Amino acid sequence: YQGGIWIGAITPEGDTLVSVTRTHFTPHEFFPSAEPWDTIWVVNKGDTVDIPYWPKYTAVSDQDFVCRYSDYHILNITDHTPLYLDVIQRSYAWSSPPLDEFIVFNFDIIPTKFDLHDVYLGYWLHGEIGNNDVADNFIDEETLFYPEQQMAVGKDAEGGNDGTAISPIGIKILDPVDDSLKWTFKWYNHEDLAGFGRDPLRYRVAMSSGEIMQNRPDIERAHISLCFGPFKVAVGDTLHFEVAEVFGFGLEGLMKNAEYLEFLRDRDYKVPFPPPKPPLRVVTRNHEVYLNWE
């Protein structure tokens, strides 16, 4: 339904700031520049394009989306002070199973004005799993966290008057993997987010607290944030991280697809294909002709 990255950091002056691409009750804080080429570049498998900020970009998946945006182009947003970040985003998507069961997002984050410390990265998800009938407004999600897989999951509860959604949604952090990082997993009630828009509160509670909440004991619409850090990044340097949106036929199917995604990632997303069958040859036995594989 909705999701996006959060970036929080402390400036050299000691300001605690957070810039978000998406969350409830908060405006979009990232926008592209006014340049005509700051749009979404669609690069299909086998193609190479010259993007002004990425010359000779070659597609990785069946269809890559490439775009760039910043948190300082629009400054009239209430209560938003930018970190002055450029973000280059790439997404990888495939058309054949099981690769069509996930989408990979890569983010390159580049400070443009000042060095940042205690940087925390995160992904926020509002899944809305199941049938969200406006008249009924009944969503009964289960909210789950799998620390070993670095993955948060929203799953439709069994039964209920919204039917059964067979595909849960998982948000899996792929990179970086570092035992020294502090992880924070939080879920929120729909109404509780209204007062959660202030940067210091979001940074302190949602991004850097290190709290790992238990799987949600009740079933309700799920707002999930999964954050990690801290990092340091200087002006002009690049902080990279990678996250995947994972689907599957039920929770078991989702976990299998998450494992296959790790397998594919270890091979730089070079999709393995079975070797071609050997050529046919003609064999004569007792004056009868057979077609055998080599």
Q: How large a portion of the residues is in β-strands, by DSSP E?
A: 35-45%
The dominant shape is: globular
Q: What is the overall pLDDT average?
A: 85
Structural class from helices and strands? mainly beta
Give the biggest beta sheet: 8 strands, antiparallel
The order of strands across the largest sheet is 3-6-7-8-15-12-11-10
- The rounded distance between the terminal residues' Cα atoms is 52 Å
Portion in helices:
under 10%
Q: Tally of extended strands?
A: 17
Secondary-structure element sequence?
Answer: EEEEEEEEEEEEEHEEHEE
- The poorly predicted ranges are 290-294
Oligomer: single chain
Radius of gyration: 23 Å
Number of helices: 2
Task: Give your account of this protein's structure.
- 9% of the residues lie in helices and 41% in strands.
- It has helices at residues 199-207, 250-265; strands spanning 2-10, 16-20, 41-44, 48-51, 54-58, 63-70, 85-93, 102-111, 116-126, 141-146, 151-156, 169-175, 182-188, 223-233, 239-246, 280-285, 288-293.
- Mean pLDDT is 85; it is low at 290-294.
- Strand 10 and strand 11 (151-156) form a beta hairpin.
- With 294 residues, it is mainly beta.
- The strands form 4 sheets. The chain has an 8-stranded antiparallel β-sheet. Strands 2-1-9-14-13 form a 5-stranded antiparallel β-sheet, covered by helices on one side. It has a two-stranded antiparallel sheet with strand order 4-5.
